[in-house]
Specification:
Strand content of chain B: 35-45%
Radius of gyration of chain A: 19 Å
Order of helices and strands of chain A: HEEEEEEEEEEEEEEEEEEEE
Shape of chain A: globular
Largest interface: A-B, 13 and 13 residues
Number of domains of chain A: 1
Distance between the termini of chain A: 61 Å
Number of strands of chain A: 20
Strand content of chain A: 35-45%
CATH superfamily of chain A: Immunoglobulins
Structural class of chain A: mainly beta
Shape of chain B: globular
Number of strands of chain B: 7
Largest sheet of chain B: 4 strands, antiparallel
Oligomer: heterodimer
Number of helices of chain A: 1
CATH topology of chain B: Immunoglobulin-like
Number of helices of chain B: 1
CATH topology of chain A: Immunoglobulin-like
CATH architecture of chain A: Sandwich
Chain lengths: ~270, ~100
């Protein structure tokens, strides 16, 4: 009987664990390519989702800030945003699209999103993922390694747009400019890239995870706040340092102020 | 003797300072401003500035306009009529040639 109860308890735990171990929330700033030969307008989609499974896409509020940094100069892009409805594999969620901003000349363009904190109702906590995504024109490096002074920020040590598949990507997790030792960093692959020209994820998965540990990878920063991850597959990879920002309260509730960065690897052919 | 060494040292330093760009590739892109002028931006793959690099706008083998990259590594010139070439001249083996027909808004 005792054994039976133990087995039942284990089974219940297993069920909960299965349902709880879904993929992680990731704020996406999506554009198809990270490198360009010439300056141009590129599509930019802001979607708050679970990228590995392209599952439940959360409703985004109007972002607090959306801007681009190029050659050290900041340009506000809030006026380029319009709300769209994004279709995931399981639902529809409110997202944003930026149109009309054209990159001129060459160098790095670092897009930064400070979203309105999202209330995760089941847990009664807010999540605010401050996100960086950058692209390069013509191969001239200008801003990729800059620290932008965000409350929660991942500072790149390798160019996020110039990675071969198999390269490592290293970053330093910072909270108000200070490295965060032993921070939890989630890693997730954009496994269902958006269908070009449509507000939806593609149905086909590019990779299959043998088990939940592979859906959302969890790594840690070292004593100096640095993490390293070897990229196993071409495409976009997101890194999210959890709860490292100082603004841990919002509207009287806990706020997890996270830092996200996106990097793109390409195959060597 | 000591003086000679110092001079050699200074020379080496000067060369060293002038050279780092050569270890990297030159980069130059141009775009049409849409107002009858063209702007070119230059630099090097390690991120260093192209300030002072000579710029030539050529037509039929002749130099139409000669100038240099400014402090922001930019060079703006009046768009010539007809075919033209832009040359970013960062020294031997480090020139970039851009055909005018590839320069668009």
């Amino acid at each position: 009987m005792k054994r039976m109860t133990a087995v039942m308890a284990l089974a219940i735990i297993a069920v909960f664990a299965m349902s709880g171990a879904a993929s992680a929330h990731f704020q996406l700033i999506y554009t198809p390519d990270a490198v360009y030969e010439k300056g141009q307008e590129i599509p930019l989609d802001l979607v708050f989702t679970h990228p590995f499974e392209a599952g439940h896409t959360m409703d985004m509020g109007k972002p607090q800030q959306f801007y681009v940094v190029h050659k050290g100069k900041k340009k506000d892009l809030m006026g380029t945003l319009k709300p769209i409805e994004w279709t995931s594999l399981t639902n529809k969620g409110k997202a944003y699209r930026s149109t009309g901003y054209k990159m001129r000349g060459m160098g790095d363009w670092v897009f930064v999103l400070v979203p309105e904190p999202y209330l995760e109702k089941e847990e009664g906590v807010y999540i605010q993922q401050i996100t960086k995504m950058m692209v390069n024109v013509a191969g001239m490096p200008t801003d990729w390694d800059a620290e932008l002074g965000l409350p929660a920020e991942i500072v790149a040590l390798d160019k996020p747009y110039a990675l071969w598949t198999g390269n490592v990507f290293r970053g330093i997790v910072k909270s108000n400019g200070k490295p965060v030792p032993f921070a939890d960093v989630e890693v997730e692959y954009l496994n269902h890239p958006p269908v070009p020209g449509k507000d939806m994820f593609q149905k086909n998965a590019l990779a299959t995870a043998p088990q939940d540990s592979f859906v959302t990878g969890t790594i840690k920063t070292d004593a100096n706040g640095m993490f390293t991850y070897a990229i196993p597959k071409a495409g976009w990879w997101g890194f999210c340092a959890l709860g490292v920002g100082p603004d841990n309260k919002f509207k009287g509730k806990e706020n997890s102020q996270d830092a996200v960065i996106w990097v793109k690897a390409v195959d060597m052919k | 003797m000591k003086k000679t060494m110092t001079i050699i040292g200074v020379l080496a330093l000067c060369l060293g300072l002038a050279l780092p760009a050569l270890a990297h590739s030159p980069i130059c892109t141009c775009y049409d401003n849409g107002d009858g002028t063209i702007t070119c931006e230059g630099g090097f793959s390690d991120g260093s500035s192209a300030s002072g690099v000579n710029m030539y706008v050529k037509q039929g083998g002749k130099v139409l306009i000669k100038g240099a990259m400014n402090a922001d590594s930019e060079f703006t010139f009046k768009k010539p009529t007809g075919k033209y070439l832009v040359e970013f001249d960062a020294g031997e083996g480090h020139a970039v040639l851009i055909d005018g027909k590839d320069i668009v808004e």
